Amino acid sequence: MKKLGALIASTIVAATLLVGCGGGKYVDGTYTGEGKGNAGTIKVEVTVEKGKIKDIELVEHHETQTLVDGVKESMFPDVIKKQGTEGVEAISGASSSSKGALEAINNALAGAAKK
Question: How far is CA 44 from CA 13, 48, 59, 109, in A?
Fold first, then answer.
């Protein structure tokens, strides 16, 4: 009976590990999203590899360059680190640009989400 219990326990552990290594929560590919910034549309491309966010590129914007540079340099790496936008804070002084970029990323990730 102990062997059966140990076998069941090890099977559960193995299954849990396999599910955890399931490649992330996104489908591989490059996805485009748009959001509304302070001065117009912000467009991004999000690249997903092995089910995880690998890269975010700013494709188009009409924002002040220095504000967008702050968004790219601070927020984009945070989104990649957190594998989503939840908990990513807007850049002080660039809140509209930040919100537009997050909206664009979320719209891109909506197309990448596993169903």
Answer: 39, 13, 5, 11
